[in-house]
Design brief:
The protein is α+β, with helices and mostly antiparallel strands. It is built from one helix and 13 strands, in the order αβββββββββββββ. 24% of the residues are buried.
């Protein structure tokens, strides 16, 4: 055997060292994943049918919660409170009849971020709309959806929703 070729003992030791490194990296990755905060919620507003119009703007309390990992969404108030600083993704969708306007606004700490709307019409039987945003939030920041005064949504049959999750 030539001296430039490694012997089987050297190959075995190299293989064993690589296997140890792989196990160490897998354990490190597992530890990082276990420590990652998980935050996600998805909820619908279920009030038995048409909801609104009201004389004032109202925060929508999406009361039928499907998922609330991290307990950051409060279904009584309709407010999501960021448990950790990070980048979050939010969506909201609505269904409504055309007899009243529909204007939903997503707020971050009382600051308007996104709107989904449709005007009043006598010839349009139903309207659908929605929007999505990615926001940088600090721990304690609040995100919620409100409905403008004199507007309405359909709050039954799984039509109007608010969801969000932590991206990073």
């Amino acid at each position: 055997m030539s001296s430039s070729n490694p012997n089987m003992s050297d190959l075995g030791q190299s293989l064993y060292a690589m296997a140890e490194q792989l196990i160490a990296l897998e354990n490190r990755l597992k530890t990082l994943e276990e420590g990652k905060t998980k935050v996600t919620f998805s909820a619908m507003i279920e009030k038995g049918g048409a909801y609104g119009p009201f004389n004032t703007e109202v925060t929508l309390a999406f009361n039928k919660v499907f998922t609330n990992i991290g307990d950051a969404y409060n279904s009584s108030t309709g407010i999501f409170t960021a448990p950790v600083t990070g980048v979050y993704h939010f969506t909201f969708f609505y269904h409504a009849g055309g007899q009243h306007a529909s204007v939903l606004t997503l707020f971050k700490n009382r600051e308007m971020v996104a709107i989904a709307s449709d005007h009043q019409t006598g010839s349009d039987g139903a309207d659908n709309g929605g929007n999505a945003v990615v926001l940088q939030l600090q721990q304690g920041d609040q995100v919620y959806v409100s409905m403008r005064a004199n507007c309405h949504v359909w709050a039954a049959d799984y039509h109007t929703s608010f969801s969000g999750f932590l991206l990073s």
